[in-house]
Amino acid sequence: MAEDCIFCRIIKGEIPSNKVYEDDKMVAIHDVAPAAPVHVLLLPKEHTDNVTTAAPELLAYMLGKVKTIAEQTGIAEKGFRVVINTGEEGGQTVNHLHIHVIGGKALGWPPC
To answer: How far apart are CA 56 and CA 23, in angstroms?
Structure first.
């Protein structure tokens, strides 16, 4: 874990969070600045900077949990968006891989 990484500190319990899901590989928390009524972040417990540095098996595992998170938060039936921002120009603001699961309202396209 990276000592100065805010997501690593959340995973270690140093910073409180509102958890939706947790297992030995990842944790899912409500975003503190939600873009929609439901906005959950899936965080791997092992620090990796982004989608390009993550092991493919980790990405597959985390994406495999999206259905569970969507069902637990009540957005599975009507639909939701899954977003992985990567790098500065991709909108990534924390250099720790995180997958956004966003829903609870109609989402427009394009997103920006």
So the answer is: 18
